[in-house]
């Protein structure tokens, strides 16, 4: 038979060489002049474990093809070169010529527009091959090779061509093989963003949920029954991973051609052709990362695969908890830094370039995208973190969700709230979606959800982390802080936010930590008895671990907390009054509960804020003296475990929710919540530690020791 091969690289070269060695007449065509020249000078060499041989077959550039092409035309160009290949064939095919696509991706429609659907056959090719040098192709293995008619008929021409092609078998469901290859190909694209081998990327437990989810996402779109091949079985995806690892470990081709295009050849991949027609979030995230690597914004490294795994968890775990506003595909970041590759979510009240600052409000979520990052977000990117998601919050961080937006729920108990207002950030960290998230805290909005969800939540010293690019609620009391899975992650993020360099001790501290136990808070009748008992038990464990405790009467902290309302309400009204009663007012865009809270703020005389600030100034020295002789103050974080929904601040439950967290917003002292136990119903309980203003590092070191002792 006579064959013309359009695209004589890895696949086309391998098939063409086998055809030539079998005695068929073969004309090789390729767009690479060096490859064509090498074939004509020394033949086409096939190397690798399958066999070593060289064939002498003529090779031409596309412009050297004959005016009339007959016989069988094998199209083996990369998918994104299909249009160019089609133009080469336009008006050149003899009446009896047959075209066979040997490409990855669903390119049949583009080819059939020119050559006609009636003369087009399609192949599924899964043996590994690589173009190693001009004139040399490495064949790494022998995998499944199928050829079929698009309509599924078993025709004479199909059988004749299948008999001629090496390793090929005719099939009546070629589209089933192509859709299975789409799923497997999407997994290969995912693995190619790293520098891992195909087998390693499929075998690593960190990435198996991602690989399985990608395959399921693609297979769900298949209009035909996907077919099994080389260990990949659409009906048994978990088992497929094991079999594919074995198959690929037995191949001399360790990495995919996609990886070689990205990392070795530095050229475009077939991503737009193979993944572009697919729908679904995961393949979209993969495609965006591939394009970022193609643009030179990223390199192939495991951190990219870890980011894809975080996206998979975002979809599987974060969205059911109503914790996600938006995913941010292939986020820009520095190529190195102390947070290199850490996936970080951001509360959607903080500017992220290219996204509206949503504020937990549907009107704002549809607004103009931010032109630049908030200072805190810019610091995350500069440290190498992947700012990959926007997290949900209570409307304007004011204490209630907008009625059209669901409240973030608690991973520990999805029938309970994650807390407010940084509930989305807390839920994502607690669910294991990401190790850290940014939040804001005006009266406890980081530490309360951290306590409810069983994670670490830090409100740093006031002013330590910039609030530039953040929607204010009460500028005097607002803080940007961190929610994280551990104190170590919290410390790493704070170091990046502040540009400081510090480390947490890894061994036994030089001296025992001294804890000032706030006995009045433990005796507060508003504290749930079970939480009080769990907190006391945690303190007993800290004493057993060698920490020294001293009782402290925190009455002054309650007096500081009493200043919060007058400061917050006056400042919140100053911030939001233009929307509610200004010349361009549009109060209807604000949820009814939030609007009620803000309108009540309008009734507070501005002078009450001034009086509250004066009281604060007078009380601060006494608050600091509580730390004389101790390293940190210790007490409960919240008065009750996570309720079903966040109570508005003007309800009895809402009025007491922040009684233990609010004092430190008023004083400006750093405070952190560390998990310390579970209720009988499985709800997390947190312990709050506070330090002197400016001693954030000392607070984190004490918290790290407490975390170890309570773990």
TrEMBL record:
InterPro entries: 6PGD_dom2, Amidase, Amidase_CS, Amidase_dom, AS_sf, KPR_N, NAD(P)-bd_dom_sf
Domain Amidase: start-end pairs: 334-700
SUPFAM superfamilies the record matches: Amidase signature (AS) enzymes, NAD(P)-binding Rossmann-fold domains
Organism for this UniProt entry: Pseudonocardia yunnanensis
PROSITE patterns: AMIDASES
Domain of life: Bacteria
Name of the molecule in the record: Amidase family protein
Domain Ketopantoate reductase N-terminal: 4-151
């Amino acid at each position: 038979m006579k064959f013309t091969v359009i695209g004589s690289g890895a696949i086309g070269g391998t098939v063409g060489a086998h055809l030539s060695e079998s005695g068929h007449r073969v004309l090789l065509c390729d767009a690479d002049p060096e490859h064509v020249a090498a074939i004509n000078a020394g033949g086409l060499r096939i190397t690798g474990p399958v066999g070593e041989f060289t064939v002498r077959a003529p090779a031409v550039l596309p412009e050297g093809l004959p005016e009339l092409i007959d016989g069988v035309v094998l199209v083996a160009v990369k998918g994104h070169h299909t249009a160019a290949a089609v133009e080469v064939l336009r008006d050149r095919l003899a009446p009896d010529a047959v075209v066979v696509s040997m490409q990855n991706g669903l390119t049949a429609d583009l080819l059939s527009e020119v050559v006609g659907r009636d003369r087009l056959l399609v192949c599924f090719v899964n043996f590994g091959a690589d173009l190693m040098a001009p004139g040399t192709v490495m064949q790494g293995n022998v995998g499944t090779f199928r050829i079929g008619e698009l309509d599924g008929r078993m025709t004479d021409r199909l059988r004749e061509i299948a008999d001629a092609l090496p390793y090929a078998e005719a099939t009546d469901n070629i589209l089933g093989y192509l859709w299975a290859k789409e799923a497997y190909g999407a997994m290969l694209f995912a693995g190619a963003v790293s520098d891992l081998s195909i087998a390693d990327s499929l075998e690593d437990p960190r990435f198996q949920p991602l690989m399985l989810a990608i395959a399921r996402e693609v297979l769900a779109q298949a209009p035909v029954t996907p077919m099994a091949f080389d260990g990949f079985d659409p009906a048994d995806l978990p088992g497929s991973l094991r079999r594919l690892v074995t198959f690929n470990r037995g191949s001399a081709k360790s990495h995919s051609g996609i990886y070689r295009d990205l990392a070795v050849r530095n050229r475009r991949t077939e991503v737009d052709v193979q993944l572009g027609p697919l729908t679904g979030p995961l393949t979209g995230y993969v495609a965006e990362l591939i394009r970022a690597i193609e643009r030179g914004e990223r390199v192939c490294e495991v951190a990219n695969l870890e980011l894809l795994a975080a996206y998979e968890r975002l979809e599987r775990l974060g969205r059911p908890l109503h914790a996600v506003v938006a995913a941010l595909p292939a986020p820009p970041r520095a190529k190195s830094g102390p947070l290199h590759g850490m996936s970080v979510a951001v509360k959607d009240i903080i500017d992220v370039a290219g996204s509206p600052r949503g504020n937990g409000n549907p009107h704002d979520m549809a607004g103009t995208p931010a032109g630049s990052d908030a200072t805190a977000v810019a610091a995350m990117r500069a440290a190498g973190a992947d700012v990959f998601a926007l997290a949900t919050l209570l409307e304007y961080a004011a204490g209630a969700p907008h009625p059209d937006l669901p409240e973030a729920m608690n991973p520990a108990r999805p029938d309970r709230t994650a807390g407010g207002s940084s509930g989305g950030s807390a839920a994502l960290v607690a669910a294991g979606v990401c190790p850290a998230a940014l939040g804001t805290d005006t009266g406890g909005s980081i530490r309360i959800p951290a306590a409810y969800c069983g994670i670490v939540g830090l409100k740093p010293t006031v002013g330590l982390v910039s609030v530039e690019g953040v929607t204010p609620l009460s500028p005097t009391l607002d803080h940007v802080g961190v929610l994280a899975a551990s104190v170590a992650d919290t410390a790493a993020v704070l170091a990046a936010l502040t540009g400081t360099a510090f480390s947490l001790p890894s061994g036994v501290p030089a001296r025992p930590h001294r804890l000032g136990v706030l006995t009045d808070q433990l005796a507060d009748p508003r504290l749930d008895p079970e939480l009080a008992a769990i907190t006391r038990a945690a303190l007993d464990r800290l004493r057993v671990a060698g920490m020294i405790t001293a009782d402290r009467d925190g009455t002054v902290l309650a007096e500081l907390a009493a200043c919060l309302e007058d400061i917050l309400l006056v400042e919140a009204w100053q911030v939001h009054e233009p929307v509610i009663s200004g010349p361009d007012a549009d109060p209807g865009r604000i949820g009814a509960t939030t609007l009620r809270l803000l309108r009540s703020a309008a009734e507070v005389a501005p002078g009450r804020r001034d009086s509250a600030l004066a009281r604060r100034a007078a009380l601060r020295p006494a608050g600091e003296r509580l730390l004389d002789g101790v390293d940190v103050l210790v007490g409960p974080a919240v008065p009750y475990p996570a309720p079903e929904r966040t109570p508005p601040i003007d309800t009895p439950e809402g009025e007491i929710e922040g009684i233990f967290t609010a004092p430190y917003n008023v004083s400006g002292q750093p405070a952190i919540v560390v998990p310390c136990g579970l209720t009988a119903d499985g709800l997390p309980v947190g312990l709050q530690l506070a330090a002197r203003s400016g001693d954030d590092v000392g607070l984190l070191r004490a918290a790290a020791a407490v975390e170890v002792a309570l773990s």
